[in-house]
Amino acid sequence: MTSGFEDLLRELTPQVLAAVVRRYGHFDTAEDAVQEALLTAAQQWPADGVPDNPKAWLITVASRRLTDLLRGESARQRRESTWTLPEHYTPAPTADDSLVLLFLCCHPSLSPSSQIALTLRAVGGLTTAEIARAFLVPESTMTRRISRAKQTVKASGVPFGLPADDRLPVVLHVLYLIFTEGYARDRVELSGEAIRLARMVRRLRPDDGEAAGLLALLLLTDARRPARTGPNGEPVPMAEQDRTRWLAEDIAEGVDLVTTALTQGPPGPYQLQAAIAAVHDEAASYAETDWPQIVGLYELLQRISDNPVVDLNHAVAVAMVDGPRKGLALLDNRLDDDHRLHSARAHLLELAGDRAAARVSYREASRRATSLPQQRYLNARADRLMD
Question: Cα separations (Å) of 124 from 24, 66, 168, 175, 355?
Fold first, then answer.
């Protein structure tokens, strides 16, 4: 199957699943039916061509398959009298089904980890294996967790629609994780979907500063995407990025959003992270960045967020203001297996002139990195410091 068909099916999957769940319920069975509809499309579309309305086609096929699956259950008569499939089904022009599905996946009866896992699977389109890697658990464990989450949603009997209760903090967190997964793995369709859904949440909650802050953060981060990797996929540090390739329209929109959001009460973590991103994106160069302002923003963020990545970035910002040794003192208080810690330490050691120690830290960071381009980049930095 060509990449064009694959991209279209990936885009339509959460929309089709949401439409089928909205009409019929049965989250777990609906997902099975949608997967079979996707398989049918993968077999037929390359030969027959894409239908005029591919979403409606997929919904129709999935609905028919779901009806067959439901007929095999014990309450056959009741279900057959309740679910009658129209010959040509078209989704109702109501709130976007993907957004409704997102809120459904953040059901309050689920644990936070299950909410995130289910959303990444149903809305974000990640495979169970990808989600398992993100949670650092075996794939079999994540399969069971997602299955239990779907059963819990099914048993809750909650109607498919935007909820009256406020699940917004979890929804924002899930969107942030979906974006982060897409951005880290250069999956543009995934980070783009997170931005699209964040826009919809922002429209749904226009007075919420954190909803605006998250959208601003995603836009300001994604604006650097064209310059963040080299021709072979290797990471390019912000200090070395060609800022003329950054997306000026996204930066302008993000700056406007966070400027407004910061007036909407005490700032939350997404607003503060967006403010930091805005300072970076508005600087003419890395050297001209307002590092004292960034240090101050990170210190505000540390007061409300216990996050090792925030601590790491704060240490780097301190190093830019007070010198690399000050930053290293903050990093040396941390014992962490994340390759980013060792990479940051190597960078600051290099700035401090300790080439031998920097080389060792770059090697250690490479050993802990999970992607081949990162490993190559970190080893190249180490090789550059060979005497």
Answer: 21, 22, 17, 9, 42
